Records
---
Amino acid sequence: MGRPKKTIQRKPSGIYMALVWVDGKKYSKSLETKDELVATRRAAQAVKELHAQARAIANSAVQSKWDADSPDQIGTVWDIPELPDGSADYANAKPRKVRAADLLDPEQIRPVGWQDLFKEAVSVRKQKKGEDYSRGWYEGVERSIKTCPFGPKEANPQLIRQWIKDMEEKGMGARYREIHCSYLRSLIKVSIPSR
């Protein structure tokens, strides 16, 4: 059993937030105050709004960021029954809507490279925080991408261990290796959230 999830939490800046978890997803809203009593009074309204937001997202046809799930990627497949003599009964054929994801391999739907994840992470940061990453972050991520001998789709424990071992053999310290791995891990974490 995990730690209890608090509905009202305080950010490091001192601002209070209302948090709710619906179907394993966290929804949050700023209570726009540093005063605990004011935050407590505002929390009930914020929780109602967050639950309404979660219901709206669950009930709506939210546009997916995946091309294969977009309406223009949905096609029609015809289910054609057979007649007793083995020929096709075209008169009673039934159309069935399918998404590209049902027919194509994952590589055909959305090829992903480190640069794709890099761009996605930057756009997510700008959308969520309204600001860009620091120049140092850009330099660190680009350096990590250049040193990584594999792409995100090929990443597996054996390749990652080998990469770390190669960096160690080149004389790179533990902190340096950790930083490279954490930059790439953050790209994956931000860019490919599990749904």
---
Amino acid sequence: MVHGLCHQLYNCPLDLCVETRVHDRFPGIEASQFVNLSRICRESLRVVEDKELQKLTPSVIFSASTALNCATAMFVGHLFPSRTDFTRAYRSTPAFGMGARLFELWKARYDRHMPGDEYLLVDSFAEALGLADWIEWSAESAPDSGPEPMRSKFVGKEDDATMFCLDALKRFEKMSPGVVFEVAREIAVLGMGGIDHSTPGKTYELKSIQGEKFTGLQLLCLMHVGLRKTDPAMDTGLDLDGPYKMALEAFKGHLQ
């Protein structure tokens, strides 16, 4: 959850800058951009509406993540005025005021934006959210094996993870790369609020795969395999490469 929040904190202000430039420079894809951003906002709303998830998530993480999602919702309303209002669900939450503050921080700096300022925004967002001590900048070339807490989660669950990875490989075999990425992306967004992989009987549903329920570990395996198939070089932050490689060997045997 800490890794997911820090990832969201890093990406949120950068994404707002990128989406603004796309909107200004490529008017021909405006409709597609609106559909994509609307889908992201709708998926984020699931976190606000899931009361059980709110109980499971530490309050500092839930509040910060919700405020970042609220800022994104305000940004979409700013980019596409009068088309929709994704902020309505946030107005009754404590995160609304902070979300508005984050959006205004971004807007004030973007109006006089210079290359590289987006990284100063990350620091501004972190300070506003009280997360300045959670992050530090490091050189891009510095070795990073990923967050150790995430990588130690699956000890004793390797067999289950291998089975779920194999199921994901078989499932994704019938899907286009675009659909595979959508599944992985939906799980990644859900993971910003935390995915409980250890509570027995805890299940989740996905909009991209309707009519099924998945355990937390199954979701993480789906995301890991999906990202491996669409971007093999990406570090998913999950210690699932061992089960994935075993599942891949079994899958190759299945194809033969």
---
Amino acid sequence: MRGGTRDVLILPLDGGPVAEVAKTSMQEMLGRWSPDGRSLAYNELGPRGGIWVSRRGADGTWSPGRRIANGFFASWSPDSRFISHSTGLFFGGLAVVAADSSQTRTLYDGTRPGAPVAEMSSWSDDGQTLYFKSHSATGAAAIWSIPFAGGEPRRVLDLGDGRLRADRYSFRIAHGRLYYTLLDRQSNVWVMAVEK
């Protein structure tokens, strides 16, 4: 938010200068490194969303971003060839786009009545399965899986209970483990004297 809009910047760990990857009048956010470290996918916050990719050259400079799909919450495949994303911010399904060709394939249509809504996604270590998080109308969260080849989603895990809730979209799968956060929904009663 340095210039009044959301931008994607890189801060080198060696103390070098900050590099601007995406600095436009749009609202760019949620940068995600490709596993090979050569590219960065990020989202455009807008009515239809947008998945953009910038590549880092051998000299360390970044190419101008290239819009490859409409959607939200980009997630790279382990081989850096594909990006999965949700087709809507608060509703929709799950799609996969080839990072180099912008060829999109819908894996799952989440607009069908009673279907779970796809939010953020994460890939299995072998790239053969995608997982996505979904919230029901009551706010209960679950993780679902779907094969990269396509098919019906399968509920893998319900997250939380009446007190501990997985309200946020984010989660990750890495090295055969699922990482997620739960909010502890409890409160305290405070009493204070009112002075006249």
